[in-house]
Amino acid sequence: MSTDQALRVIRDRVQNPKARFGFILGSGLGSLADLVCGTAIDYAELPGFPHAGVSGHTAKLILGTLEGVDVAILGGREHYYENGRADAMRTPLEVLAALGVETLFLTNACGSFLPEIPPGNLMLIKDHINYSGRSPLIGEPTDKRFVNLTEAYDPAIRKHLKSVASSCDIPLIEGVYAWYSGPNFETPAEIRMLQLLGADAVGMSTVPEVILGRFLGMKCCAVSVVTNMAAGLGNETISHEHTKASAPTGTAKLQTIIRRFLQEQQS
Ligand code: HPA
Q1: What pLDDT, on a 0 to 100 scale, did the predictor assign at position 55?
Q2: CA of 15 to the centre of ligand 1 (A)
Q3: Nearest atom of ligand 1 to the alpha carbon of 182
Q4: Consecutive 10-residue runs of the chain (267 residues): their mean pLDDT?
Q5: What pLDDT sits at residue 232?
Q6: Is 180 known to be catalytic?
Q7: Residue whose CA is closest, atom 2 of ligand 1?
Q8: Count of alpha carbons within 13 Å of 251, Cβ hemisphere only?
Q9: Nearest-angstrom CA–CA distance, 87 and 135
Q10: Pairing mode, if any, of strands 60-66 and 122-130?
Q11: Where does 148-262 show beta strands of DSSP type E?
Q12: Which of 97, 162, 238, 259 could make an S-S bridge to 216, C-beta 3.0–4.6 Å?
């Protein structure tokens, strides 16, 4: 319902809107949106889109081209911790799917568990642990809700991203991302537990969007920008201010990878 209304608003603003790649930008990662030639529409104008924002996020949908490829960028996300809704990004993602997005590229900030991926570096998510136990599909009445997440993070895209990163001389190590609900950061004991469970990094987003993305038939990939070592593993004081201040180094690397990745998609 709100998806159709949002699509109407978009069609009033953009002639023949379409996109092959959709992006969701995480905390402090918004500068990718500045590179797109196109039209920006405030979430506030789009029914079903999140309104309140977390600082460090830009609440706009940007439709246009990046490296000659049609893209749709969701400049900010609503997190589960804002209103307790795991499906907060359902309408924006339904809109992306309706615009023709085949591949959903998610970005986030995370706390790393691995000394080999210190702050300022990137982790390519190969799998996740939904430690929140929440699903954005609770209440979905159709059998489509039984989504297979065996290869949720598309293996072919991961392979391609690793080869792009290596050609740009940017380390891109794969790891498992644990979704912890937030908004408080974790305790050192919780991080030790998540390590035992097999996670390599922790963050407060992305997982519900990947579940929705797969539900909507989009291929998904996700890259985390490491802003800090997780609680108990580093010396810096963990804070949202620190997350935003630390994101630019990793973001610059991620932008390089995304631009090269899109250059190779031109057809
Ligand atoms: N924990 C959870 N989310 C985060 C972190 C963290 O350490 N860093 C950036 N986002």
Answers
A1: 58
A2: 39
A3: 2
A4: 94 96 85 89 94 68 96 94 95 98 97 96 98 96 97 98 97 97 96 98 97 98 96 87 81 94 85
A5: 95
A6: no
A7: 203
A8: 21
A9: 8
A10: unpaired
A11: 172-179, 201-203, 219-229
A12: 97
Rounded to the nearest whole angstrom, what is the distance from the C-alpha of residue 108 to the centroid of ligand 1?
A: 9
Phi, psi angle pair for 160, to nearest 5°: -60, -45
The 3-state DSSP class for residue 267 equals coil
State both tokens at 243.
């997350």
Ligand 1 center–CA 69 separation, angstroms: 31
pTM (predicted TM-score): 0.95
Instruction: Tell me the best of 107, 131, 184, 185 to mutate to test the pocket of ligand 1, counting ligand atoms within 8 Å of each CB and taking the most.
Output: 185
**pLDDT value at residue 52:** 59
As a whole number of angstroms, the distance between CA 70 and CA 199 comes to 34
The single-letter DSSP state of residue 153 is: B
The strand ranges marked E within 6-165 are: 21-24, 37-42, 60-66, 69-74, 103-112, 122-130
CATH classification of 2-263 is 3.40.50.1580, yes or no? yes
How far are the Cα atoms of 75, 84, 161, 168 from residue 259, in angstroms, in the given order?
17, 34, 11, 11
Backbone angles phi, psi at 56, to 5 degrees: 100, -5
**Domain limits, the chain:** 2-263
Q: Which of 79, 112, 131, 230 is catalytic?
A: 79
For residue 183, say if its preceding peptide bond is cis, omega within 30 degrees of 0: yes
94 is catalytic: no
Which pLDDT does position 260 carry in this prediction? 95
Task: Name residue, tokens 């990718």.
Answer: 32
The residue from 45, 67, 82, 151 that is catalytic is: 82
